[in-house]
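Example for tutorial group B:
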């Protein structure tokens, strides 16, 4: 199953225009996992772009996820009556989102989908 998972990961790294054909080809080779592979939907443009951010610009993706986690934690602390520097967490999150959006725009532009 790990090998099939790796093949599915590769599907989401492809250009969006190649997804359906590659998915169908994989389904033919997947044996007992064919139904699972066939059920995978082609990601829409925003989802595809986030997938590409994850696969090709992991540092930016991880920074965004880390900033989001820290913002959630700061809000949680504040809501539980503890001190938290929400402003700093919000600023870091805002910067991470701004960077991620710029990277996603670049990915989409390079793919011919501005």
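The residue assignment follows.
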């Amino acid at each position: 199953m790990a090998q099939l998972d790796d093949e599915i990961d590769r599907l989401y790294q492809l250009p969006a225009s190649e997804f359906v054909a590659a998915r169908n080809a994989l389904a033919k080779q997947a044996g007992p996992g064919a139904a699972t592979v066939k059920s995978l939907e082609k990601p829409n443009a925003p989802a595809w772009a986030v997938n590409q951010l994850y696969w090709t610009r992991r540092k930016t993706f991880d920074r965004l996820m880390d900033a989001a986690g820290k913002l959630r934690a700061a809000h949680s602390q504040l809501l539980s009556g503890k001190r938290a520097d929400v402003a700093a967490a919000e600023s870091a999150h805002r910067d991470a989102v701004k960077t991620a959006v710029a990277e996603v725009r670049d990915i989409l532009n390079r793919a011919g989908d501005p």
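The longest helix spans residues 86-110. Compare this with the pattern of hydrophobic and polar residues in the output above.
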